TrEMBL record:
Organism placement in taxonomy: Eukaryota, Viridiplantae, Streptophyta, Embryophyta, Tracheophyta
Annotated InterPro entries: AB_hydrolase_fold, LYPA1-2/EST-like, PLipase/COase/thioEstase
One term under GO cellular component: cytoplasm
Keywords for this protein: Hydrolase, Membrane, Transmembrane, Transmembrane helix
One Pfam family linked to the record: Abhydrolase_2
Entry GO MF terms: carboxylic ester hydrolase activity; palmitoyl-(protein) hydrolase activity
This protein's name: Phospholipase/carboxylesterase/thioesterase domain-containing protein
């Protein structure tokens, strides 16, 4: 039960990426190969491709996901909320839409979802190939010291801010706005937004700007909580790149919860770091184990995201 992202290779090597679902395939040159877990693999020409794509296991997850109910709050008392989901390089918004079906708790009855698609741009790590991209990425795998293209990043951030502004203008309380997604755009969009939002959830991300950029973080943005999830077996955005994130946001006064999939043979345990502006770090090792996670997001992570957002939703009263 894993939402599989691609595992791109470095320039000059061959690679493949996981398919979203057969009906999302558009290129006749792509061929699907399934296996018992319903994960579909698509083989492409040698190209470094950092893409977030959902595997065929999404069908299994959606069919097996139990209806959940909550007695903590009456759903009718919940105000309108907004979840903006940002896909990764080479992917599309519609390909990620099935994720919302996992958020079945009554608290999300008044939630508006948005799955925008990135414009097509040239991507340096892909030899200048044109593909859906929010901003330019210079190399794969992404490390903590990878080059940062702040110019294209800030342009993408402006576009995301327009989406958030539009929703707030429509009547949604900023405290009920959540920005989630793969890669690094979520972090940049949240930390540069002039208001405090409900939260930002980063999956397999990294710090996309230099330390000097922190001077431009509005005080209001620093009060937006961050949930950061990263697989230790990630070979596309290396774990070291994700691990550098919580200390970075902590030093500017942002509360960040860092969830890690800790590899141990064929299973992983969930390791959480709670980093607060008060420099107090609490480390908790949960006993729950699940299959090894690489450059992907699994069902357990999404269920935790659901509970994390639920705990921060504001009522209409």
């Amino acid at each position: 039960m894993v939402f599989k992202r691609s595992v791109p290779q470095q320039k000059g090597s061959s690679g493949n990426f996981a398919s979203v679902c057969p009906n999302f395939l558009r290129e006749p040159s792509l061929s699907c190969h399934g296996y018992s877990g319903m994960k579909l693999m698509v083989f492409v020409k040698p190209i470094a491709l950092l893409a977030v794509t959902l595997s065929g296991t999404i069908l299994f997850i959606l069919l097996s996901h139990p209806n959940q109910s909550s007695t903590s709050r009456e759903p009718d008392s919940m105000a309108r909320s907004f979840i903006l989901w940002l896909h990764g390089l080479g992917d599309s918004g519609p390909a990620n839409e099935p994720i919302k079906n996992l958020f079945s708790s009554p608290e999300f009855r008044n939630t508006i979802w948005s799955f925008p698609s990135a414009p097509s741009n040239t991507v340096t790590c892909n030899y200048g190939a044109v593909m859906p991209s929010w901003f330019d990425i210079h190399e794969i795998p992404v490390t903590a010291d990878s080059p940062k293209d702040e110019r294209s990043l800030l342009k993408a951030v402006q576009n995301v801010h327009k989406m958030i502004d539009k929703e707030i203008a429509a009547g949604t309380n900023p405290n009920n706005v959540f920005v989630c997604g793969f890669s690094a755009l979520t972090l940049a969009s949240v930390l540069l937004y002039p208001k405090t939002l409900g939260g930002g959830a980063v999956f397999s991300g990294w710090v996309p700007f230099n330390a000097s950029r922190t001077e431009q973080f509005p005080p209001e943005a620093k009060r937006t909580p961050i949930l950061w999830s990263h697989g230790m077996a990630d070979r596309t955005v290396l774990f070291e790149a994700g691990q550098a994130g919580p200390p970075f946001v902590e030093q500017v006064g942002v509360t960040c919860e860092f969830k890690v999939t800790y590899a141990s043979n064929s299973t992983v345990a969930q390791l959480d770091w709670y980093v607060t502006p008060e420099n107090s770090t609490q480390v908790v090792l949960n006993s729950q184990a699940y299959p090894k996670l690489e450059h992907s997001i699994n069902n357990e992570e999404l269920r935790y995201l659901e509970s994390w957002i639920k705990a921060r939703l504001q009522s209409s009263s």
